[in-house]
Amino acid sequence: GCFDEFNRINLEVLSVVSAQLKTIQNALVGDLKRFQFEGREIALVNTCGFFITMNPGYAGRVELPDNLKAMFRPVTMIVPNLGQICEIMLYSEGFETARVLARKMVVLYKLAKEQCSKQPHYDFGLRALKSVLVMAGGMKRDPANSELGEDSVLMRALRDMNVPKFIFEDVPLFLGLIDDLFPGLECPRVQQPSLKAAIEGKLEEAGYKVLYDQVDKTVQLYETMLTRHTTMIVGPTGGGKSVVMKTLQKAQGELGLPTKLYVLNAKAQTVNELYGVLDPATREWADGMLSNIFRDVNKPLPPGKDERRYIVFDTDVDAVWVENMNSVMDD
């Protein structure tokens, strides 16, 4: 078994796990076919093994107890070679000039990391690179882009995936870097005229002044949500986050795509009340607030009806509650 993020388990549980592992290891050393485990006799497969992954020193993580550390052989991972990973992924997505494009992409992310302002939500790591590569692959296979060259497809993916996350001052800097790495390439953004008109109409209807930047942010949110199934809207109080989200909801409704928002505050209850909890005595699962909403959201729609459903965490993000969403939010 491979246990991911192992050191996020509570210390009390870890001590129980170490006792259970010791029992299994002793049975393996004794070359037993059957052994006593938690009061029951069970069969032992002699090829079974345990692997754990952990990030020491993160918030919401605990140090492994010494008796548990002694049971595992540590393997330290090094920083991955981004260029090689990019090249292989581009080849697998169907790009023929992958080597040159991978080099440009890694240089762009390195320069952006060095030259852009330092913001807590900026990420120029492997995860961010991977999602751009997957999007670029999807765009390359799209018949609508058959006339575009490979460098134009990658340039568009890099621009459309990254520009929405930059603060106002960093946008020209990033676009300048793209121009330097892809000189002479003119690749206009895909226009969304009907969506723009609906957004402007809904902003006027709500009594807001129609600003180009706010309309563009709403379109960016729409485009980001087409490529990612989890999106974070970041900004100061009064910055227009709720307006952008609710305007998009209303605009999509006007375009024949009803949108339902499930808004909750993740920090208004404990983690167990949010996600649910397994009763240690009866082994019965009790749903939490989020798991109830998830079940509701995943109920099938009646035939012929289409609806978008978004779960909105209107709250501060911290490792205590959001770490449990780690693999759910992965692309």
From TrEMBL:
It comes from the Eukaryota. It holds the Pfam family AAA_6. GO terms for biological process: microtubule-based movement. SUPFAM superfamilies: P-loop containing nucleoside triphosphate hydrolases. Residues 1-242 form the Dynein heavy chain hydrolytic ATP-binding dynein motor region domain. GO terms for molecular function: ATP binding; dynein intermediate chain binding; dynein light intermediate chain binding. InterPro entries: AAA_6, DHC, Dynein_AAA1S, P-loop_NTPase. It comes from Hemiselmis andersenii (Cryptophyte alga). GO terms for cellular component: dynein complex. Belongs to the dynein heavy chain family. This is Dynein heavy chain hydrolytic ATP-binding dynein motor region domain-containing protein.
